[in-house]
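We read letters as residues; the fold follows as tokens. Both lines appear below.
***
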Amino acid sequence: MKKIGGTVLLAALFLFMATAAMALPTWETPCVEYKFKFSNYEKWNDVNGNGIFDVGDTITGILNITTIYKVVGSSQTIIWQTYPGSNEELTGNFTYVITDKQYNGPVTVYNSTYTNSGVFGSYTYTLADEIDLYYDTTPDFNSTYGVNNGATDGVLWAKLDTTGMTMSGLGDNATAWAAADALSAHIAGISNAPLNLIYNNTGVGWINPVHLASTIDYSGAGWTFTSDDPLTATTVPEPATIMLLGAGLLGLGSWGRKKSKKSKEN
């Protein structure tokens, strides 16, 4: 009976390790917060050709997760980074569809170095669609516009539903963005947007929603925008893991009761 009980526990441990094999890095559970730092490259597609950023237009792009932090209170510890020569990467692609546009009035932007200023319209855009993330052990990500960027190589790691995400921005055309950029102003931002994980191959459970924040800058040629996005997510135990651990504990309990009964009989 001892041998059988030990076999059950080893099998449970093996299955748990197999479930977590795609984890990058090894995640801690439960309720541990992680922050994923992205570099994004985005292209505005002027679907109706009117030169205005508005409903029906799309933003397509690629991303590269450069750093993963473990967050404890106000402190952040780097637990994974990609770098030239590394043997793994987390990359992805996305398409946002603009589903709504609201004008919020004029905003005056001041440069911190010079005395000139600019007045821009302020807008809020509602976006939809998803972000797809891939884990690749043969890194080849290339952010150059118009080339094979390697963003979707490897194994599909996660999908995030962006439906309902909002972006607040200055101006709604390239002329306004270029002027804002000249004033050292970010042209748009996404603040604490809640996203739902709709596909998970990370090896651990995550609490929905995860949260995205972003600072968006105008690039112009090639990629229209670049952005620097942290995504914050918190781990939970996977149901399968809980069941396996429960089975192991039941096995131990059963073995213990039988051992105790046998001892009393003797």
Q: What stands out?
A: The chain is about 20% helix and 45% strand.
